[in-house]
Structures are given as structure tokens and as C-alpha cells.
Amino acid sequence: MGHWFSQNIVEPGKLPLLLALASFVLTFLATRTVTRLIRAGKGPFRNVSSGGLHIHHVVPGVVLVVVGGFGAVAAGRQGGWAAGVFAVLFGAGAGLVLDEFALILHLDDVYWSEQGRKSVEVVVLTAALVTLTLGGFSPLGVNELTTEERQNRVSLVVSLALNFLFVLVALFKGKFRLAVIGTLLPFVAIVAALRLARPGSLWARRVYARRPKARARAGLRAYHHDRRWSRVARRFQDLIGGFQERVPGRGPDHR
């Protein structure tokens, strides 16, 4: 185990990334635990406020992201222990910020509402992408090129352009998650780009406008897909985010 860790994490310089990921996940889980206890009125935790202003934890999160990010840049590739410290700070800050991603997106306190599920989705997606990067994947499939292809700049540019095109098509078809994952796993973007668009997406509104059969097939496929996976996704979000927890006498946004 020690040899594997040294060969695959330490020697390639991935230790700061691993520390950032661990700090990110642990901070998010700790934050969700604390907010759930606050909502339930349990434990020694309480909301933090300055005067009449409620301070969301995205505020210290932004500070940690700034300190960790600029510190990592200043430390450079030869940062040593400092790179690890700044990686932990950055991961913790990112965990705090993305835990309230839905609040930033909607500019409203939707933490416990239906819109608040976006925060959990973004956190899980971020953790998955960083884990894939630790596992050896690189953005847009550059790692899949041979040594000769790496030396050939034309092949490299064409490969990147094609992958980027598939990612854009997937985005236009309303498949955000698959598009993001497709930046690391190109075949995912290809599959998403070739399949039917989501109803309501820009692609569906433009391309399917005069194709009623394609529009009907897309709607039917989306219905069956959502019916099959939405319940599973919601249960997973409820387990992590605690959205099903209800406190008597308190509104859905109380923390």
C-alpha cells in the first residue's frame, strides 16, 4: 500500500490534490452535519450573525479559497509542506462555498428548499471529477494520446477541438452533468452528444422545432429516464443533504 501510494500519488505530485479533495469532502460533510443540528435545535451549534446580518458559511469559504489559491500559486511546484497546507485550506474553502452553491446561483436563501439540491449535485460532481483526475484522467482525454501524437501539435489540437465540440453539443442538448464528465472522459461526451436532447434545451427548441416526431421521442425518453433515476437521485440527496428532515414550527429555510 505504501509503495502504491508513493508511486501513484507522491511521485506524480498529486499529494496536494489528494489533500484538497479530502479536505473538500470532510468540510462539506461536517458543514452539513452542523447545519442539520442547528436546524433541529440540537448540540452546541447556533447560527452566526453580526448585528442583524446573518453570516453564511460561504463567506469564510471564499476567504479560505482566496488564501489557499493564492498561497498555492506563490508556493509553486516546489512548495513542499506549504503546498499541502494551502491545498487543505483551498479544499476546505471550496467545500464551504459549494455547500451554498444554490444560494449563490439563486441569490436567495434556498438552502433547505428544492432548489438547494443543486448544492449537493455540484459537490458530488466536483468530488467525482477530482477523483477521476487523481485516478489518472486528464481534461479532454489528452492522456489517451500516444507519445507520437503528443509531439504532433496538429493531432493534439484536432483531438482537443473534437472533444470540445462534443462537450458543447452535450451542453446545448441540456446534458450538463454528462458534458462536465465528458471533459475528462471523452466517450461520455460523445454518447451525450449523439443521443436525443433534453426537452426544453436550446438544441430541442431549435433543431426539433419542425420535427414533431423527434420532439415526441425526446420527451418520452426524458420521461422514462427521470422516472427511473429521479427517485434514486433524490434519496441520495436527502441522505447527504438532509432535505427530508422537518422541524416542527420552523420554515423550510430555517438554519
> What gyration radius follows from the Cα positions, in whole Å?
21 Å
Q: Which structural class fits the helix and strand makeup? A: mainly alpha
The biggest beta sheet is recorded as:
2 strands, antiparallel
Please work out how many helical segments DSSP would assign.
12
Overall pLDDT metric: 82
Return the string of H and E elements.
HHEEHHHHHHHHHH
What fraction of the residues are assigned to beta strands by DSSP? under 5%
Low-confidence stretches: none
The geometry reads as globular
**CA(first)-CA(last) distance:** 42 Å
Helicity, in percent?
Answer: 55-70%
Main sheet strand line-up: 1-2
Total number of β-strand segments?
A: 2
Protein name: Integral membrane protein
Keywords: Membrane, Transmembrane, Transmembrane helix
Give a verbal description of the structure.
With 255 residues, the chain is mainly alpha-helical. It has a domain at 1-136. The protein has helices at 2-10, 15-40, 58-75, 81-99, 101-106, 117-134, 147-151, 153-172, 176-182, 186-194, 202-207, 212-241, and strands at 49-50, 53-54. The longest helix has 30 residues, at 212-241. The protein is globular, with a radius of gyration of 21 Å. The model has no long low-confidence stretch (mean pLDDT 82). This is Integral membrane protein. Keywords: Membrane, Transmembrane, Transmembrane helix. The chain crosses the membrane at residues 54-74, 81-102, 122-142, 154-172, 178-197.
